[in-house]
Write a structure and sequence with these properties.
Strand content: 15-25%
Number of helices: 13
Mean pLDDT: 90
Helix content: 25-40%
Shape: elongated
CATH superfamily of the largest domain: Bira Bifunctional Protein, Domain 2
Number of strands: 11
Number of domains: 2
Order of helices and strands: HHHHHHEEHEHEEHEEEEEHEHHH
Bound molecules: 3,4-dihydroxyphenylalanine
């Protein structure tokens, strides 16, 4: 039988409690039968309609009729009932709008919370009292972290950061760096060319830059000497995948041009940078090499920061330095005058200025620094691996 509000004859706390409990039980029962908008409107009006809704009736039959001394107590009860009714009416609406959720969630606080959270999206209802959605904080990728640390070392020396395009022309990647057309030094770069470029003159043909060195020329075209820049960036080569090679990898390049720059400046700068980056105990060693865009050219090694230069770890051979005690870190040299010839008109007269340049592999340094034994792990995007840097 449908619940009806009766007049109160007894205003004692116990009687009020009994009457409220009876009302709440009816409220819960009726709320759980709401299945659609039609039901809900009837339910809402039955309890909340200004004219003869249950709340109005309680107001009249319980509160207004109460003797003076009971008014305060009855008023508190009626307020409580009003809150409950409003809540149940709102919840009943959410429930029929999201039919896949359990009809009665009153028994579990957690399901009630989920119910309301889902309601935010589905019914456009926002409950600002719910806890926020926790978003996991990402971590800097180890290659990015290494790059940023190295770039910062040079920034502290007064270098600025320069960048350039990954899809580059033959001119910037090769010709202006003193790799003449058909020069065998081009073969060492395993270049990935963009298809369909044959109709263009060679210097305009597009390719994926094989090193960050083209940004040297691009920057010298824009900025007059003196110049000190550090160039981080992505490069590509047609190398098959293995533990130490990836067709996509990262370099950090540097260039300093001024009057009277010497090989001594190159050695002093790089030795300082390596001590900053790897720790003050590392030593550097320069060995002759060849690059078309530097003369003389060198490869720089640092004493192995894993075994301390001994070539051994305890009784085991040190693998990262192949027991030599030295690790090759970068290529460098004095900028070849032929390179300056390409930007002579912007103040780079090879008779007046000199400079040094260097380039290193950021991924290789990250592998060594973090003791990772497979470069592929850097690019597979497995969050279990990447989380280690969080
Ligand atoms: N571009 C060279 C490479 O990718 C690395 C390099 C060597 C850069 C010597 C330089 C340099 O700036 O002076 O193998």
């Amino acid at each position: 039988m449908a619940y009806t509000i009766s007049k109160l004859t007894d205003y004692s706390a116990a009687a009020l409690e009994r009457a409220s409990a009876e009302l709440f039980s009816a409220l819960g029962d009726e709320a759980s039968t709401v299945k659609n908008e039609g039901d809900w409107k009837i339910f809402r009006d039955r309890w909340m309609a200004r004219k003869n809704g249950v709340l109005t009736q309680i107001n009249d039959l319980w509160l207004k009729a109460a003797p003076k001394e009971a008014k305060r107590e009855v008023g508190l009860r009626v307020n409580l009932i009003k809150e409950q009714v409003e809540q149940q009416v709102a919840d009943a609406k959410v429930r029929y709008q999201i039919p896949e959720l359990p009809i009665s969630s009153a028994t579990s606080e957690i399901s009630e919370t989920n119910l309301r959270r889902d309601a935010i999206g589905k019914a456009g209802i926002i409950d600002i009292t719910l806890p926020g959605i926790r978003r996991p904080i990402g971590a800097e990728h180890p290659v990015v972290k290494t790059t940023n640390e190295m770039v910062r070392v040079f920034q502290r020396l007064g270098y600025s950061v320069a960048e350039g395009p990954v899809v580059e022309t033959d001119y910037y990647n090769f010709e202006s760096l003193n790799f003449p057309p058909n020069h065998p030094a081009r073969d060492t770069q395993d270049t990935l060319f963009i298809a369909g470029q044959q109709a263009k003159p060679q210097r305009e043909r597009l390719l994926l830059r094989t090193h960050t060195s083209p940004v040297q020329i691009r920057t010298m075209e824009k900025m007059r000497p003196p110049l000190r820049i550090v160039i981080p960036g992505t490069v590509h080569r047609n190398d098959p995948l293995d533990a130490s090679h990836s067709p996509m990898f990262h370099q950090i390049e540097g260039l300093a041009v001024d009057t009277n720059i010497t090989f001594g400046d190159l050695k002093g700068t790089l030795d300082h940078a390596m001590k900053e980056f790897f720790g003050s105990s590392v030593k550097t060693s320069f060995r002759p090499s060849f690059f078309p865009f530097t003369e003389p050219s060198a490869e720089m090694f640092v004493s192995c920061f894993i075994c301390g230069g001994s070539g051994r770890r305890g009784t085991d051979p040190c693998r990262p330095c192949k027991q030599t005690g030295w690790i090759e870190i970068l290529g460098c040299g004095m900028v070849d005058p032929n390179v300056f010839e390409f930007v002579k008109d912007n103040g780079y007269d090879p008779r007046k200025v000199s400079g040094f340049a260097f380039g290193m592999g950021a991924d290789r340094i990250a592998l060594l620094k973090y003791g990772v034994d497979d470069i592929q792990l850097f690019f597979q995007g497995d969050v279990r691996f990447l989380r280690q840097w969080a």
